[in-house]
Design a protein that fits this description.
Elements: E1 5-9, E2 14-22, E3 34-41, E4 46-54, H1 57-63, E5 77-84, H2 90-103
Length: about 120
């Protein structure tokens, strides 16, 4: 059995993210650069809560400045999915975040879109 993946859409492309994993059990995430998505998994829908480009996925998931408000937008399971990007590819990482932000409206911006 392979690693679980979830498809996340952007305005220009679709991306295969690793996961999702329960946010409360995300200690196994790697200290690598990339992009992570915070999702709310309800019984019938999955809602994208936030997207973050970072030089350290594990540290950012655990300490991000918006992490305290993520639960406000989810009364079910908060999940995280990750997309690793090589350290020297910062432009790719930033582009990926912008492309995903283009497609989804985030609760931090007063809207939600299900996937």
């Amino acid at each position: 059995m392979g690693m679980e993946e979830i498809t996340i859409s952007g305005c220009n492309e679709k991306y295969q993210f690793e996961g999702p994993y329960k946010l409360s059990e995300a200690d196994h995430l790697k200290n690598v650069p990339g992009v992570f998505i915070i999702l709310c998994f309800g019984k019938k829908s999955k809602t994208v809560i936030d997207v973050v480009s970072t030089s350290d996925i594990k540290d950012s998931v655990q300490t991000h400045e918006r992490s305290a408000i993520w639960p406000e937008y989810c009364d079910k399971d908060l999940m995280v999915a990750v997309y690793e990007v090589a350290a020297e590819e910062t432009e790719k990482r930033d582009w990926l975040e912008k492309d995903i932000r283009c497609f989804y409206a985030f609760p931090c911006e007063n809207q939600k879109k299900t996937i």
